[in-house]
Write a structure and sequence with these properties.
Layout (H helix, E strand, L loop, with lengths): L4 H12 L5 H8 L3 H7 L21 H17 L8 H12 L5 H15 L15 E13 L2 E12 L5 E6 L4 H15 L5 E4 L6 E3 L6 E2 L1 H10 L2 E4 L9 H13 L6 E2 L2 H18 L9 H11 L12 E5 L6 E4 L2 E4 L9 E5 L3 E6 L2 E7 L16 H6 L8 H4 L4 H8 L4 H13 L1 H9 L4 H4 L8 H12 L21 H9 L7
Parallel strand pairs: 1-4, 1-8, 4-7
Antiparallel strand pairs: 1-2, 2-3, 5-6, 9-12, 10-11, 12-13, 13-14
Helix pairs in contact: 2-3, 4-6, 5-6, 15-16
């Protein structure tokens, strides 16, 4: 029987103060003699319950071990939506272990074992030497790029001794972005640390995890060239790179709020660099006895210097342009000059840009495109030679429609002479700003035609400007006149008749 404190007080008072017997106390209070016997001497108190035996005896040791194995498997997999429920464990016990008990028994056992296995997280404070290690990680946030709201990935690196930070935005978490982020971070810090601490992301780990992880080949080559040791955390152990984990959230809250609105990703990265510089110059971590800038001076003396060769972080491929003068890379299409059709070009794809080379010469650079079913990226100048050879195609040429402003396209559609359109497009490519200004003022073709007589309208404008202000005449004083003595040709005449050289004559 469970009693309250008042009844316990009455039992003890009647027994100690009035010397009543157990039978008398039970009769007076209307309770059983066994309850009186339990509490009269004060060896037991009602506010402390004796722990029960726990799991029902119907669960054998092999059943309990099976439950523990299921829960340990959940810890290893660390999946928020795929784990053993008590119901699933009960079903598995019946199917795999021949359990015949009820589900409630299993539920109580699972709850008790989970409580026992639950541990409070306790961390050991860590200390790093200057230049010993950096921690890296990825974050993700929304940004407006050229008016479009997209998800961008930002690469974060933190030097463990000084707390200095580096951050760079990329469109994707691919190998090119990963290596480029690492190299740019090293260059921001001014050297290379002994260790780089990262999680087990596939961009860096080929197989395994933690100290058993095998690095991807390109990451191994990068680490060998810059002479650092890749270190990988254990599964579900973000505390092993807690400095950079905090940095990811810090950047999101302090740099990416409000949501950035930028023209392109380069503008956002310039914003990141400015913030990192200000952090270095002005920030002081509470647990440190000096500013980040002062600690970085000490760190740089310990960092490894860069080798002469700068590692090429691009994904490099040799590709032949198709019949439309387009290079297809990673399902995206980029134009090249039509003269390169039938030849091979080298594509160097970086995290945010793509360079196309031919015979070691850079032909064109693009902002790298990602996605599915995206439009080809054209440059009008790549097709001008072909348009001149086939002028009737100007009205429907996609490189024209996709590259020139709508108001210019409406203007040339009204012209009935393709050769005039070709001349206008040439002028537009050489001085687009001036040409669009004339269109905005309502200029007609007759007004623009005089400017089309030259292949270089910019030069023509300069010449017209200089013609309106003739240069000042050049004055040379008589004292500075250059005296040229007369030259005698007689030695050469003698040479013709006698042979020899003028000096011999």
């Amino acid at each position: 029987m469970c009693i309250d404190s008042k009844l316990y007080n009455d039992i003890r008072y009647l027994y100690e103060r009035e010397n009543k017997s157990q039978r008398a106390i039970a009769s007076i209070l209307g309770i059983s003699r066994s309850t009186v016997k339990k509490y009269i001497e004060g060896a037991a108190v009602p506010w402390e319950r004796k722990s029960g035996t726990g799991t029902a005896s119907v669960l054998k040791p092999e059943h309990l071990e099976f439950i523990k194995a299921c829960l340990r498997e959940d810890e290893i997999e660390h999946l928020s939506k795929q784990f053993h429920t008590a119901r699933r464990i009960y079903v598995r016990l019946c199917e795999e272990k021949g359990f015949t008990g009820c589900e409630s028994t299993v539920r109580r056992a699972v709850a008790e074992i989970r409580e026992i296995m639950k541990t409070t997280k306790v961390f050991i404070p860590l200390a790093y030497a200057p230049g010993e290690a950096v921690q890296i990680d990825w974050g993700e946030a929304k940004s407006y790029v050229n008016g479009e709201r997209i998800s961008l990935n930002y690469f974060c690196m933190r030097e463990c001794f000084s707390g200095d930070i580096f951050c760079k935005a990329f469109y994707r978490q691919n190998k090119e972005s990963f290596l480029e982020g690492l190299l740019c971070g090293f260059e921001h810090f001014g050297g290379i640390p002994l260790r780089v601490i990262f999680d087990n992301a596939k961009v860096a780990v080929k197989e395994g995890f933690g100290h058993c992880a095998k690095t991807q080949e390109y990451y191994g080559n990068f680490a060998a060239h810059y002479c650092f040791k890749p270190v990988f955390c254990n599964i579900a152990s973000g505390n092993e790179k807690g400095l950079v984990e905090n940095l990811v959230g810090y950047i999101r809250k302090n740099v990416l709020v409000p949501v950035p609105r930028v023209k392109d990703i380069n503008e956002l990265n310039n914003k990141f660099i400015d913030y990192c510089q200000k952090y270095r110059e002005k920030h002081k971590i509470d647990s440190k006895d000096a500013t980040v800038a002062q600690l970085m001076l000490e760190t740089r003396r310990a960092l490894t210097v860069f080798p002469p060769y700068r590692f090429d972080t691009s994904d490099t491929k040799t590709i032949s342009p198709n019949e439309f003068s387009l290079v297809v890379y990673d399902r995206q299409k980029y134009s090249v000059p039509t003269s390169l059709v039938g030849k091979s070009v080298t594509v160097k794809a970086y995290g945010n840009k793509l360079d196309i080379h031919h015979k070691n010469d850079l032909i064109v650079s693009y902002t790298r495109q990602y996605g599915v079913n995206t439009k080809p990226v054209y440059k009008l100048e790549h097709y001008m030679a072909l348009l001149e050879a086939r002028p009737t195609s100007v009205y429907n040429a996609r490189p024209i429609k996709d590259t020139i402003p709508p108001r210019l396209y409406r203007f040339i559609k009204e012209l009935d002479d393709p050769t005039k359109i070709i001349r206008i497009l040439k002028y537009y490519l050489e001085d687009s700003e001036h040409f669009l200004e004339m269109l905005d003022t309502g200029a007609t073709f007759d007004a623009i035609e005089p400017l089309l007589q030259t292949s270089n309208p910019v030069t023509s404008r300069r010449e017209r400007k200089s013609a309106s202000t003739p240069p000042a005449p050049l004055h040379i004083s008589a004292e500075n006149d250059i005296k040229i003595p007369p030259v005698s040709l007689s030695p050469y005449d003698a040479l013709i008749y006698r042979g020899g050289t003028p000096d011999e004559q």
